[in-house]
Structure formats: C-alpha cells, structure tokens
Amino acid sequence: MPFPQALTIPVLEGSRVRLEPLSRRHAADLAVAAEEDRGSYQFTWVPTAAEVDSYIDEQLGKAADDTLMPFAQIDVRSGRAVGATAYWDPRLWPGRDVLCAVEVGFTWLAASAQGSGINREAKFLLFAHAFEQWQVARLDLKTDARNARSRAAIEAAGARFEGVLRSWSRSWAPGEEGKLRDSAMYSIVAAEWPACRERLTRK
Hints:
The structure is a single chain. By secondary structure, this protein is α+β, with helices and mostly antiparallel strands. It has five helices and eight strands; from the N terminus they run ββααβββαβαββα. It has helices at residues 27-34, 52-64, 118-133, 148-156, 193-202; strands at residues 12-13, 17-21, 68-75, 81-92, 99-109, 138-144, 160-170, 180-189. It has an eight-stranded mixed β-sheet, with helices on both faces. The radius of gyration is 16 Å and the shape is globular.
C-alpha cells in the first residue's frame, strides 16, 4: 500500500543526527560507512561500497512508488552520512487516504556510529514525527529473531515485544540466501507514545 500522496519525506534534525531524504549525493559517504567493520551486520543487509549506487537507486525507486521513505543518517558533528533508515509498509485507515500505521526499518549505521546515541535519537525523531505530525495509531519495528543486539536497541527505544512470526520474511544472514527468517515483532501504539517519548527524552 502506498503512502498518501500528500506526504513528503521530511528533514528531521536532532543534536546528534539529521535525517534527510536519501539521494545519490550521499553515495560517497555511505560507501565509506559501509566498509567499516562489518562484524555487526550478521543479520542485517548492508550494501558494500560497490553496491551503494544500486542500493540508492533501488531505494529511490521504491520512494517514487510511494512505498518507502528512505533517509540518510547524517552525523551532525562531521556532516557525513553514516547510515540509512526508512519509513515503510504504510497502512491507511479503511476507505481513507490517511495514514494509520507505518514501520521504521531498513536501518543500518557505520560501525563507528554505533553506540554513539545516533540510533536512539534517529528513532526518537522518526517516532515523534509519525505520532505527532502524521497522527498514526501504530508504529511497527521488526528484526531477525536471532539479532539480540537489534532487539535490545528496539526494546531500549520503548517498543513492546509482540511475539515471533515464524518464517515470516527474507533472511539477510550470510549463507541464507533464498531462505526465510523468524521475525521478532515490536510496536508502539499512540496511547503509549507519551510515556515512550518521556523515556527517550530522559535518555
């Protein structure tokens, strides 16, 4: 289901990270970011430097179809793109061209940006925009059920674990091409957002 045409990809800025619409001008920075220590990408697909151009083209193609809103994650201190993230899987209220729910995903960061607070602030910016500007009823996050690091980060952001859907989506783990993974499902609903917002603000 596409995003409502009235919605555009915003620029979201915090003290550590600025999320801006992904474009080809981010390619050089992302190629460098992707080639840092790749040891944490065991369950997450991250393009290699050689794949960055085609990766951006694919993301922009989905954006043109209104099925994805991709962002470059910009380290405010250096001004360089250090990763990417996105809104995707939009769902509309029945019979209305109004967003009801959306997922945050396709997220990755350079090794040097992990643990810096960038991921947490980026999540805060994305969550706040979805709930406070778009007035969504629900926000989804999911990850490979085996990805303990990603699950801990999602839980630290205040999302509630809903369960594991078996053989739910494509596996990105090396050697598992063409296979399905079990996905750990998380969500935040509108009634939970004020407490979640306060928690993230404190952190």
